[in-house]
Design brief:
Blueprint (H helix, E strand, L loop, with lengths): L2 H20 L10 H19 L1
């Protein structure tokens, strides 16, 4: 097995393990839930202020 093949096999094994842990369709690029909730709350407050 060449270094490249070993590197690719290791990457695929890590990807499979992370898929099992976090879910297959999760890329890790999304915001954490708490951050997303804070953004949504801020948007709701800004919208409410605009209505006043």
């Amino acid at each position: 097995m060449t270094n490249i093949e070993r590197y690719m096999a290791e990457g695929l094994a890590i990807d499979k393990a992370e898929g099992a842990l976090y879910g297959e369709n999760r890329t890790g690029q999304g915001l954490p839930r708490k951050v997303k909730q804070a953004i949504e709350k801020r948007e709701a407050i800004v919208a409410a202020i605009k209505e006043i």
